[in-house]
Design brief:
By secondary structure, the chain is mostly helical. The protein contains 3 helices and no strands. Helix 1 runs antiparallel to helix 2. About 10% of the residues are buried.
């Protein structure tokens, strides 16, 4: 399941980038995403529209990884 692993890694990276934006600044977080080869749009979309940020798991039942 390489795609699932990639999606999980991207989600963790994006969440950490959001934390960096709040603590160290947006420019630092965008540079971090560039270094991880994750699209900047993920973070910019969350900052522009905070109500669309996912706060809970979408799945009905959480995964057992």
């Amino acid at each position: 399941m390489p795609q699932r692993r990639r999606d999980d890694e991207t989600a963790v990276t994006a969440e950490y980038a959001f934390f960096l934006a709040e603590t160290r600044g947006l420019r630092f977080a965008l540079d971090y995403l560039d270094n991880c080869r994750i699209p900047r749009e993920i973070l910019l979309r969350v900052i522009d529209q905070p109500e669309r940020r996912r706060r809970i798991e979408r799945r009905r039942f959480p995964r057992n990884d």
